[in-house]
Amino acid sequence: MMKKAVVFGASGFVGSYLLRELLDSPDYEEVIAVVRRELPLSHPKLRMWIGDYNSSSETREKFVCDEVFIALGSTTKRTPDKREYYQVDHDYPVLAARLAREGGAHSVFLVSSVGANAASKTFYIRTKGETERDILALNFEHTRIFRPSMIMGHRSENRPLERVVLKVWPLIDLFLVGNVDRYRGTSAEDIARAMKNSAKDAAGRSKIYYWREMRELLQC
Fold this sequence. Notes:
The protein is of the alpha/beta class. The protein has helices at 13-24, 53-56, 82-102, 123-136, 160-173, 188-198, 211-217; strands at residues 3-8, 28-35, 46-50, 67-70, 107-111, 142-146, 151-152, 186-187, 206-209. It contains seven helices and nine strands. The chain starts with a strand and ends with a helix.
């Protein structure tokens, strides 16, 4: 049976690749992209819903689906206010998962971060950890959490320092072996493909994927 999926963050770095992966997959008959502005994309399977955090809860019938994919997130440069940042990185993902759960979704797929820990003193890591914790508490049949380290690839945004880091990261990767290989860089495209492939695995209630586990998923 073909499935129906909802994608939050479809205009973002990982989310844009994820949307294309789902649209190209024969496993899905319909993909709903929840975005703040219309995407320059047309596909017979694609339905776009223009909305944001403040309007999502008012249209819960839009989120009737089998699976929900969440690739939402911000940066401190784009969202310097911590309250706004927390809303984007925690409140909105949790709301998205809850609405999809109420709409019948049995599986949730979340882009988080390596090191995510709700008890951390670091705001970014703690926020990611609290998001994971609160989505796990929704008790989906399947919860799949992806914890990349450095996300590789070309971004359209102007981030000079990040461009420098991305150039040297492949050299750093050479030293990240064994127990620390989870800190190796993963391309946004590979993360998206791993998320799509993980939906084929119905074993286990919750799973966390680091670099190594995502690499294995790419072979599926």
